[in-house]
């Protein structure tokens, strides 16, 4: 199909409250963040979008993308690769290379609830030679990192369970209850970074707050 996010949004608008997962073998128009294309070769990777109407106020929905990043790192651990890290807000890395990305889009369902489409792409069985040379230091896959191929059904099962568990915890306790887990896996923790936008800020990363915003010490 063109994009699982697009298909999931249509289902949401038709009144499907979820949680439901739409997956595809291939996307002809996979979408990344900031208008980028998400390359989606057939049969090798995971492409999926959850439709979800979380039981939290709309104003508290923002960290759902960080919740999804935690779930992706859990799912990777669930299939035996224990060292996944998160780069704020929602890139998942293995060995310093990005292996997964998340694109969350807010929508309202037919009955007026606030629902989200959480789209997740994970590079599973790509090998080094499948990446263009200029990307090989930045992008990777589970199979390349782990030295063995990944059973895609096992991964879908692991991800679905992890996602539902983390969303349940988010609904119960808000992102405050997940912050410690997030910060423990956060590669930018303690690093000096520059954040663009407006005048831009440079500072040391202290962590994230209860709304999932990055906390910087700028002095
Ligand atoms: C990013 O740019 O890091 C986010 C990439 C998100 C890609 C996934 S693949 C499944 C879903 N469908 C899409 O069109 N995009 C998301």
Structure commentary:
With 219 residues, the chain is of the alpha+beta class. It has 5 helices and 9 strands. Helix 2 crosses helix 4. The chain is globular and about 50 Å long. The structure holds biotin. The site of biotin has 19 residues, from helix 1, strand 2, strand 5 and strand 6.
Number of strands: 9
Instruction: Tell me the Rg in angstroms.
Output: 17 Å
**Low-confidence segments, ≥5 residues, pLDDT <50?**
none
Described by strand count, sense and barrel closure, the largest sheet is: 6 strands, antiparallel
Bound molecules: biotin
Average pLDDT score: 94
Distance linking N and C termini: 49 Å
Structural class: alpha+beta
Q: Which range does the strand content fall in?
A: 25-35%
Oligomer: single chain
Helix fraction by DSSP (H/I, runs of at least 4): 25-40%
Cα shape: globular
Strand order of the largest sheet: 1-2-6-5-4-3
Count the DSSP helices. Answer: 5
Sequence of secondary-structure elements = HEEHEEEEHHHEEE
Features:
219 residues, alpha+beta, six-stranded antiparallel sheet, three-stranded antiparallel sheet, 5 helices, 9 strands, 26% helix, 26% strand, binds biotin
Write the layout of secondary structure elements.
Layout: H1 4-13, E1 20-24, E2 46-52, H2 64-78, E3 85-87, E4 91-94, E5 97-108, E6 114-122, H3 142-146, H4 152-173, H5 179-184, E7 192-195, E8 201-208, E9 214-217
Antiparallel strand pairs: 1-2, 2-6, 3-4, 4-5, 5-6, 7-8, 8-9
The chain binds biotin.
Short overview:
By secondary structure, the protein is α+β, with helices and mostly antiparallel strands. Helices cover 26% and strands 26% of the residues.
